[in-house]
Every structure is written in structure tokens, then in C-alpha cells.
Amino acid sequence: MNLDARAAEPLLQHALDTYASEKDIDDARSRALRAPDQVIKQIEQRIADAGKSKMTESELKNQQALLDAKKKEYGAISARYDEEKRRFGELTRAGKK
């Protein structure tokens, strides 16, 4: 076993210790994405209503920057769970061999 494989063992074991199935990972992803998704929807609504609320150009730019940041956060969370699911699948398939 090489050094990289030994260093990865605790991370791989964490996936097995944390989740019982891929559905558990999907459920955890859904919970983790709920708050950022709500914020994204709120910001999108504020931007859509910008003309009605007389939002300044500066405020609109700030809302757009915040929206971009939240979408990036959403993507990072989703990617983290994609990786967890991939690792979990590898470990569970390897254990069945």
C-alpha cells in the first residue's frame, strides 16, 4: 500500500461510518442544499422585483454578487456529496468482491 492510499484510508472509512446507503448520502445532500436553495430563490425574487422596489444599480449589483456566491456555494456542496457518493460506491463495491 502506498503512502497516498494510507492517507486516504481515514477519509474512506469516514464515508462507510457516516452513511449506510447511497440514499443516506442523497438525503444528507438534500438537507445541506435546502438553506442555500431558499436563499437563492429569495435573491432571485429580489432581483426580479428590482424595478418595483426602486432598487439602485449598486444594490442590484450587490444582489447579483450575492446570488453568484450562493450558486457557487450550492455547487460546492453538491460536488462534495457527489464525491462522498462516488467513494461510498467504490468502497461498497470493493467490499462485495
Walk me through the topology.
Blueprint: H1 3-18, H2 22-48, H3 50-53, H4 57-96
Helix pairs in contact: 2-4
Characteristics:
mainly alpha, 90% helix, 97 residues, rod-shaped, 4 helices
Cα radius of gyration in angstroms: 20 Å
Q: Kindly state the percentage of residues in helix.
A: over 70%
Shape: rod-shaped
Largest sheet composition? none
Helix-strand pattern: HHHH
Overall SS class? mainly alpha
Instruction: State the end-to-end CA separation.
Output: 18 Å
Quick recap of the structure?
The protein is mainly α and 97 residues long. The protein has helices at 3-18, 22-48, 50-53, 57-96.
What does this structure look like?
The protein has helices at 3-18, 22-48, 50-53, 57-96. With 97 residues, it is mainly alpha-helical. The chain starts with a helix and ends with a helix.
